[in-house]
């Protein structure tokens, strides 16, 4: 089984995000960047499947400018076999990303696409579902457990009511939750080896995808500061406030 796994470069989840003074977007200047945590889980799962003998090759892919190759180096240090960057100097919307990935799937012919359920920069949670539609493949979203059996996957999904398990035939698209696994700690020798490994590059235009935006961003603003708390004198007063003060709710 061949696996294609995605890796998006985002602002590190430990960094406080700041908005540009003109409200035109998030200020990424000098911000620490990292692999999207949900994609990191997908990369870890792909490598584990290869280590278990369930996969023959793992290919990591990202879409973006030259700086995006940083996350591909991380994926190579995890243990993926090859890395590929779709070249795009401008941010891409979910529809364009899904079309580009669909074109890559036609080239690479993987049996399974693993990807984070969403990226923490836009929280769109759309690309996996769109990709499955473009390919006409089965899909299993929000995976928190995954087992391979022949030509079928058993995927346990996080849902509103808890968890339930579905079967999906290969080829398929699977999007991952954070609790699918605990990504490994990358050792320094693997990081050094990853820096020397080649990265394939494909211009977005070569995939026949139009990356022009279809959405208009009207503005970005930070949430209002949280109001200070109030101290009450007794439990009875607290209960009364919770029952009758709409502002507390």
TrEMBL record:
UniProt GO molecular function: electron transfer activity
InterPro entries, A to Z: ET-Flavoprotein_bsu_CS, ETF_a/b_N, ETF_b, ETF_beta_N, Rossmann-like_a/b/a_fold
Highest taxon in the source lineage: Bacteria
Keywords: Electron transport, Transport
Alphabetical list of CDD domains matching this protein: ETF_beta
Electron transport found in the keyword field: yes
Cofactor: AMP
GO biological process: carboxylic acid catabolic process
Residue stretches making up the Electron transfer flavoprotein alpha/beta-subunit N-terminal domain: 23-211
Entry similarity comment: Belongs to the ETF beta-subunit/FixA family.
Role: The electron transfer flavoprotein serves as a specific electron acceptor for other dehydrogenases. It transfers the electrons to the main respiratory chain via ETF-ubiquinone oxidoreductase (ETF dehydrogenase).
Subunit structure: Heterodimer of an alpha and a beta subunit.
Protein name, as recorded: Electron transfer flavoprotein subunit beta
């Amino acid at each position: 089984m061949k696996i294609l796994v995605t890796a998006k470069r985002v602002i590190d989840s430990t960094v406080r995000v700041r908005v540009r003074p003109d409200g035109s977007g998030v200020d990424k200047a000098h911000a620490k960047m990292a692999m999207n945590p949900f994609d990191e889980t997908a990369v870890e799962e792909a490598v584990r499947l290869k280590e278990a003998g369930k996969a023959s090759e793992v290919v990591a892919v990202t879409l973006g400018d030259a700086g995006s190759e940083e996350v591909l180096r991380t994926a190579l240090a995890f243990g993926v076999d090859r890395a590929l960057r779709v070249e795009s100097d401008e941010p891409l919307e979910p529809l364009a990303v899904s079309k580009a990935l669909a074109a890559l799937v036609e080239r690479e012919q993987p049996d399974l696409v693993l990807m984070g359920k969403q990226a923490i920069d836009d929280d769109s949670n759309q690309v996996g579902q769109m990709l499955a539609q473009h390919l006409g493949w089965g899909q299993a979203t929000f995976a928190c457990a995954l087992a391979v059996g022949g030509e079928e996957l058993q995927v346990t999904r996080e849902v509103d009511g808890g968890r339930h398990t579905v079967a999906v035939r290969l080829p398929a698209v699977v999007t991952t939750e954070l609790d699918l696994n605990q990504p490994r700690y990358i050792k320094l020798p693997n990081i050094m080896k990853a820096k020397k490994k080649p990265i394939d590059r494909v211009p977005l235009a070569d995939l026949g995808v139009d990356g022009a935006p279809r959405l208009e961003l009207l503005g970005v603003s930070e949430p209002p500061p949280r109001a200070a708390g109030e101290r009450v004198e007794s439990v009875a007063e607290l209960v009364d406030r919770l029952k009758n003060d709409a502002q507390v709710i």
